[in-house]
Amino acid sequence: MGQATAKSETTYATIIAAAMDMAAAEGIGKLSLGELAKRTGISKSGVFSRVGSLETLQAAVLDEYDRRFAEEVFMPSMAVPKGLPRLISQVNQWLKKIGDEAPRGACLYTAGAFEFDDLAGPLRDRLEQGVARWRASLRKTVLQAMEAGHLRPDTDPEQLVFEIYSLIIGVMHDVRFLRDDTAPKRMTRAFNRLISTYKSFNEVE
User: Fold this and answer.
1) Phi/psi zone of residue 2: left (φ > 0), alpha (ψ -120 to 50 degrees), beta?
2) How many other CB atoms sit within 10 Å of the CB of residue 192?
3) How large a percentage of the chain has pLDDT more than 70?
């Protein structure tokens, strides 16, 4: 890698990192090339030459958020046995990420969903695709838990994913908006109670 290429990649990484911080604190819809130029000390033309349009920047920020989410939530869970242990691990890792993010800002997808729920356009589509991928991953893990006999055979995967996701949204709301430090513990208790209603008879303690 040449020195110029390395410098360009470092500059790009600096821009994306600043954009992620700004999006987390203010919302992805508040990103602007001009404001990023001020925050990074890079000229606006320099920012544009590396990230292109605002739409391209927003997509790049969400791509990086997806990468970190997979690295922090889903990848650690892959080391856990398939089935209910993996599902529990995914939820616990997700809850940990919420706690880590709370002091710095909101989840880009949760905040973005409320910000763009009634607006049409590429950014809304991209946000919806990201949420759909997360829920699809949860659904896959639920199905594996059913196949392993950990969850009842009559479990409705879509319903369980909806309920888990609703708990996640609820804890994000209480942590961020109500500043309730007890919300993660409440969510854990609610999740444990929820799963107990889906466990197969062989899994009931």
Assistant:
1) beta
2) 11
3) 91
- What ranges in the chain are assigned the alpha helix state H? 3-26, 33-40, 44-51, 54-69, 75-77, 84-101, 108-116, 122-147, 157-176, 183-196
Structure-model confidence comparison of residues 27 and 192, the more confident one: 192
Cα–Cα distance, 157 to 138 (Å, whole number)? 9
d(CA 195, CA 107): 24
Take residue 49 and report the two structure tokens written for it: 């030459």
CA dist., res. 189 & res. 182, Å (int) = 11
**121, 29 in Cβ contact below 8 A?**
no
Which tokens is 72 given? Answer: 């922090």
∠ CA 42-71-16 to the nearest 5 degrees? 10
Q: pLDDT tens digits, residue range 41-85?
A: 998 888 888 888 888 999 999 999 889 888 988 899 999 999 999
Output the CA–CA distances (angstroms, integers) from residue 68 to 18, 29, 43, 62, 99, in the order listed.
15, 20, 27, 10, 15
**pLDDT tens per residue across span 9-30:** 788 889 999 998 888 888 888 8
